[in-house]
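In this section we walk through a basic example: taking a raw amino acid sequence and producing a predicted 3D structure, encoded as discrete structure tokens. The instruction is simple. Fold the sequence below.
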Amino acid sequence: MERRAPSPRVPRARVPSCLAGRSVPSDPSPSLPHPGSRRHTGKMATAAALPAEWIKNWEKAGKSEFLQLCRALSENKSHDNMGFRDIQQALYELAYHVVRGNLKHDQASNVLGDVIEFREDMPSILADVFCILDIETSCLEEKSKRDHFTQLVLACLYLVSDTVLKERLDPETLESLGLIKQSQQFNQKSVKIKTKLFYKQQKFNLLREENEGYAKLIAELGQDLSGNITSDLILENIKSLIGCFNLDPNRVLDIILEVYECRPEYDDFFVPLIESYMYMCEPQTLCHILGFKFKFYQDPSGETPSSLYRVAAVLLQHNLIDLEDLYVHLLPGDNAIIEEHKREIVEAKQIVRKLTMVVLSSEKTEEKEKEKEKEEEKTEKPPDNQKLGLLEALLKIGDWQHAQSIMDQMPPFYATSHKPIAIALCQLVHVTIEPLYRRVGVPKGAKGSPIPSLPNKRAPKQADSFEDLRKEVFNMLCYLGPHLSHDPILFAKVVRLGKAFMKEFQSDGSKQEDKEKMEILFSCLLSITDQVLLPSLSLMDCNACMSEELWGMFKTFPYQYRYRLYGQWKNETYNSHPLLVKVKAQTIDRAKYIMKRLTKENVKPSGRQIGKLSHSNPTILFDYILSQIQKYDNLITPVVDSLKYLTSLNYDVLAYCIIEALANPEKERMKHDDTTISSWLQSLASFCGAVFRKYPIELAGLLQYVANQLKAGKSFDLLILKEVVQKMAGIEITEEMTMEQLEAMTGGEQLKAEGGYFGQIRNTKKSSQRLKDALLDHDLALPLCLLMAQQRNGVIFQEGGEKHLKLVGKLYDQCHDTLVQFGGFLASNLSTEDYIKRVPSIDVLCNEFHTPHDAAFFLSRPMYAHHISSKYDELKKAEKGNKQQHKVHKYITSCELVMAPVHDAVISLHLPKVWDDISPQFYATFWSLTMYDLAVPHSSYDREVNKLKVQMKAIDDNQEMPPNKKKKEKERCTALQDKLLEEEKKQLEHVQRVLQRLKLEKDNWLLAKSTKNETITKFLQLCIFPRCIFSAIDAVYCAHFVELVHQQKTPNFSTLLCYDRVFSDIIYTVASCTENEASRYGRFLCCMLETVTRWHSDRVIYEKECGNYPGFLTILRATGFDGGNKADQLDYENFRHVVHKWHYKLTKASVHCLETGEYTHIRNILIVLTKILPWYPKVLNLGQALERRVHKICQEEKEKRPDLYALAMGYSGQLKSRKPYMVPENEFHHKDPPARNAVAATVQNGPGGAGMPTSLSINTAKLEESTAEETDKLKEKSQGAVKVINKAVNATPKVTTSNGNSASNSKIIKEKDDKEKGGKEKDKEKKEKTPAATPETKALGKDGKDKPKEERANKDDKAREIKEKTPKSDKEKEKAKKEEKTSKEEKLKTVVTNIESKSAAEKEREKEPSRERDVAKDMKSKENAKGGEKMPVAGSLKSPVPRSETSESEREQKRRKVDTHSSPSHSSTVKDNLSELKDSSAKHYINHTTPTLSKSKEREVEKKDLDKSRERSREREKKDEKDRKDRKRDHSNSDREVPQDSTKRRKEENGTTGSSKHSKSESPSDSPRSNEKEKEKNKSKSSGKEKGDSIKAEKMEKSSSGSKKESRHDKEKTEKKEKRDSTGGKEEKKHHKSSDKHR
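The resulting token sequence is shown next.
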């Protein structure tokens, strides 16, 4: 192309070509073959190549040898370069020998003449050799050598041409050779030639220098190219112009590029033109020209035109230049770009820091202004980045490969952070996805604007399938990153493609290979979502449509993927880009601004702002909002209300944020005191409930989170589930339900919704449906139940560990309550099929899943109900008999069908021994029924219906309400009313059917293969106790069920025993409850007490509901007489005594718990007491005893444990308000207003007021025992009497003893009764008289003053007793027996009278206490006075007083005896109220047993007592004649009294102690007279008891420690007594023997 003239040979460039670039040594070393590598020795050494012999014998042999060598070297063409060198070397050596004078120059020239012919280039080689030698010799000092060299060259001139020599040799040498005239002139000439050659213009590159040529060139390029003009044609013209006008070819190329810039549409013309032009140039030329062009614009003010970028891009795309070559010409450098990127990140962080700093308002405004100015400055001068310009051009023309490699040179997302590039890349993506989008992405009905493809064939291939997206599109999107935000339309397109892909991905039927491909594509889609879509959404300007569009795709992902994406978005994405860092800070700043101003009043505007902010950055916003909610729970309601402007995606993000906040590992779930759950968790939970109910948020993640936490053994988070179920399904679990609410909860669903909850629950249908769907879709319903049921016990062992008992209890309750609530939700919302499909059978639940039985039945119960109802419906449809009987029959059949497998399944749940007493059918029936099945809450239905009527009236009266609204409201109320009435009717029918079923079943319920007592134990242990603390409704159910079993007259079920066991010792049960369980247990006791109180309140009710029911039967098996087995019913008055005993026992247990000082005991008993307040305490002195104790708790706990203090204060206040309704004891359980009010009152008030507790239990519990035990103890102590009783009272003493009511088996024959009376009375009188006779009894009579003495005496007596209790020798026993026999007859007589007097006295005592209302101290003083009166009034009364005390103490003594036989020390150590009572009674006994009780004395005492009792009985008779009608009842009662004894017996077997004392006293009362006696007896007993009680109470007050001991002692006694009783007569016999021994 370029016309280059051949270079003239310039002499200066004389270095031979072979040695160009090689340094020439001054002294070539002869040892080396190559001249260039000789050592510098300073001497000219001999040449090694030419042996010396050759030179010596040159003419002979040397010459020919040399020629042969040269020929050989010349012919060796294989190694051309090597041969060339060797020839050079050979010639050099030869010439060197000439220079040294070894060889003559003419000889050498001759040889060289021959050698020249061997090669064409030999002259040039020879010239090179001369050149070297020229340099070498010119340096030498020896002139001779230089001369030799000159001569040699002259000789060879004919061989080498002048020009070559002029080119190679120095001008001086040339001058000496005569080749030039003057070296100086030669030098000047060469400079001129060079100047002309190199510095004079041959070609024109400036237009003005050759304007015609360039004008023609531009005309050629600028002509109309539409015709047949081709690039080849133009190229030929261009060549001609260059040649003709000497145009510079580089300049021509530059002009072609310029024209191309101006005519970008002619790519097809210019690209081939440039391509063919480039064949004439060096490859780099084009690149350099472009580089110069770019450099031209690199001034600070310069701006590179886009046309240049485009040309460069096109040339790059067509590979006419290499990117690496061009890239170096572009500014700024890569280092500068990296620096700038780093600077941006730092700036972003600074902005964040400024935003988070607290700045005063004035400073804020100034700073903001400054920042604005700075930003404006920045935006004014964006530096011209040529690399980005080129990148943009590449993207526009679709050269993705080169664009990608440029982006790879830069920091990530640096390039696309520049809007033009982002837009260009977006456009390229638009084009690439067009065909696929048109096919699958365009929504129905949308036209869309098609995008034309690029005209460029080298652009990326357009995507036709999802697989094609992987090739380029996903890659492009990854380079775009968050900057897809610049093109919302593309964003929507990508999302729609994602949606279409997910549709295809989730449809089945593709091959395995396809599936694998789809899996890969799916993971790519998730990456794109994570790296591109979500970050881009953050940078968009609150675009709700985009958010919804994205949700369209997101909702097709499983929540695990979605939450993972949200997690990345929230925690990682915002830190990766400077822009996002800023956006995050701005969002938080804005969120703070909104949250500061959010109140209930401005929910709407604030909500809109929150909505706007949430469209782009929901994670950041919600994170902040949740952090605020955790701190301030009063924000919950306004925040929940303000979230109504969120998009679906935002709701989903909110769900994720909530879970993340809940799972925050840095937050403690407990407060610092470790006793309560942290408030942040509680706030979050209630927020959860509210927000999930109000908005359609997916629940699966949250539910799974709770399940996972449970799997990990953590139950804190159940709080969330509890709240969610409560809010969404409207199912509340609260222990604070009123009785009205509880009652409503026993009705149908409508009644529950209307009256069962605190909040009026409305519109839960949709939300509960959502919750149900979430549970079923993700199979979480049953797993959650099972996990909760298992975790409930796990709380104690897994989570209990180091935690405070209070917290463990709370967690247990929370776990349990949530289970109940959740189970309730499932029961009411799942269809029968769903439920039955999901819940396994009861044995699987218990044995495989280890679900506790109560929970397992709780879950299965709805299934049974569903199942039975569906079976019943089937049967009804099958036969259309409408009669009630048919219906009932069908119902029973369906029950049998459903429950039969359950009966079988249940057997595996307990040991076979269990089923000896209760049948599996009974067990399953108990656990499968609910309150809905047992009773219809009519009052609740009425209440709700009335409410609706009132509402309707109010609507009518409301003048302001518009008529259409009125109509709607009225319609709603009417519809509700109809629903309720319909529901009531339906329930009524159902209950009747259930009762019919129970009536049929009941005979098979209780098998009682062991004892009735054992049956009751199993019933309580396996049924009542586990269920009564399960839920409040279950507590009510248990009480109702007991009553129902009683009403059904179930065989082998002793109602009395059952109630007795429930009330007798509640300490252990109370102590082992959690807070909520205590509340439920209290409800259970309350309902039980309600029933008992109802029976106690009215004789008519009692007779009607209990009179002839087997549950109140006291059965006596007496074999000795001809009476056979006779049954007797517990009569009304004795029942009242028993109730009193129960009240006393409750008091005793309560006081014990309150005195333990244990947090749980005190809290639980206070809760229980609060629950049973309506029915207990009813007796004044019990109430007072409790009140004192509670008051003490208030004082003690005020500072220490404020929660206990609050509970105690609350109870104390309520107790005081109940005081007016309390009655004195005599009103509570005495039959008639007594004749001797004063006297009785004295006795009663005396001990009663002060020492209630013991005497109370004596009164009732020990009434029975005392009769039995007294007789026993009398036997033991007054030998004669004992034996009389043993024999006279019962021909079969075994029965007596086993019943524990030795005396009370006396109803076999009336005569026998009389005898027994005699025996009993003797015993009693002895007991009574001896005490009466002794100073102590007098003291008791006088009561008040002498109490201390009495106590002392009691103690002494106790000691004596203990001594006596130690076994005596057999001889003594025999003696005792003899004495008994001899004295029997006498005693019998006396005892009969005694008994009469006693019974009369007791009755009086029972009536008299009705006056007792004073505070304990007053009572005591009254007692003193009245006691004084009483002594003279009736001597027998004295005896009764102690007698009751004795009765109690005897019992206890008996227990003690049992103890003392084993450990005397134990009995002696006990010195509390009880012990005192015992002592007092013991004293009375002791008086019998001690020497003072010699027979003569006894007789005297008996006589006195007899006289007194006779006097009394006469008076009694007068009164009684008036009341004879009442007494008739008593006769009938007396018939029941023997059974009472049997109950006593049974009770004593069971450890229960009923009212057998009275029954004993009354059993003989066939005649009114005997009634009187019994009354007296009762009176005396009760008064004695009361005294004992009063003493006890006093002591209780004196020392709580004492009371603690006492309560412990009581427990031990009751336990021992139960043991003893259950062992039956054997032990008692032993006692008798031992007591005989003592005697």
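Looking at the output, two observations stand out. The two ends are 152 Å apart (CA to CA). The chain is about 75% helix and 0% strand. In the next section we compare this with other chains.
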